[in-house]
């Protein structure tokens, strides 16, 4: 089959199955059309008004619109919209705040942190910087007293707060108080929760973090990209230099335009209601799964995701759920003794199904189906049919 045919099949897969990977979402048609536009054809190394290529009159305007919208939406004075994605954006944030070989401190992967937060040995953040990792406690929660103890012993130059599999509210204020005691910078990576922050259902790190990074394609519903923010003029210059020419060449202008469109959408009242519904849906899904006897890390959720501790066999569970049309990812649980390739749990999120308009009643149905599949409590075949019927009732929005 050719690529066009495969794209059509992928569109059908996305429409006929439940996308419950918490980092995924459906971008609007307006975002996608900006992203697939002629802007793809243009080279624009540099920044608006300071390009190394001619012909950037309109590109400059588009990038300035994206910057202004992000400044307004998040309430920050400086924004860089050029990072190609979350990982290079974190690399730029680290490069802007510490020198190679200096100490950084982030949350361990199995505790819900991200690879780019200092995961040892195999990542740039663990290889080129001295990395110390804090962990969650026995209940799966970040214990800020323990973070403080470790920070005071280790004295990292940069402390990273931000998660990829943590179902609770992050205390940016407390984290920044700890960092102040040791004169460390704070990087808040709000990739997962940015939509919840602008939607008013998660506290903002503005005022507490020196640098804020978010990807634009998760709860924000934009194109695959990232933005970096700060209110510190000195760090602003360092961030710009770290992104270009430090790590990147020409910005992906079509993505910048998609980010501008997504940021306008995220500033609407409709988006605030959407963010609220994401959280409500996650809470109901968690409550229902608990009723079926599932063990959730931290005992539940305050945000858009939940991690189910199956005690092993996360991979099989994810494969069986995919067979039934429920798409999740297998995931480590805190202090997991199983290997990352087949960890103890699965991770579920509500952003994409909420984009389709699903609410509490649908979460109850989904929890029942997860129980049927994972606990082999029913007939898998009928779940597949029922999932497809539900998907038909809630088409992917355009
Ligand atoms: C918290 C966090 N930071 C950074 C990233 C990296 O983003 P990307 O996959 O766009 O490189 C992710 C992606 O899942 C993430 O969850």
Overall structural domain count:
2
CATH architecture of the largest domain: 3-Layer(aba) Sandwich
The largest pleated sheet is described as: 7 strands, mixed
CATH level 1 class label of the largest domain: Alpha Beta
**Element order, helices and strands?**
HEHEEHEHEHEHEHEHEEHHHEEHEEEHHH
Q: Which ranges are low-confidence, i.e. pLDDT below 50, for 5 or more consecutive residues?
A: none
Any idea what the shape is? globular
Work out the strand percent.
5-15%
Bound molecules: pyridoxal-5'-phosphate
Percent helix range: 40-55%
| Helix count from the secondary structure assignment | 15
CATH topology of the largest domain: Aspartate Aminotransferase, domain 2
Mean pLDDT: 97
Structural class by sheet pairing and helices: alpha/beta
Strand ordering within the main sheet: 4-10-9-8-7-5-6
N- and C-termini, Cα separation: 26 Å
Catalytic activity: (6R)-5,10-methylene-5,6,7,8-tetrahydrofolate + glycine + H2O = (6S)-5,6,7,8-tetrahydrofolate + L-serine
Subunit structure: Homodimer.
Keywords: Amino-acid biosynthesis, Cytoplasm, Methyltransferase, One-carbon metabolism, Pyridoxal phosphate, Transferase
Cofactor: pyridoxal 5'-phosphate
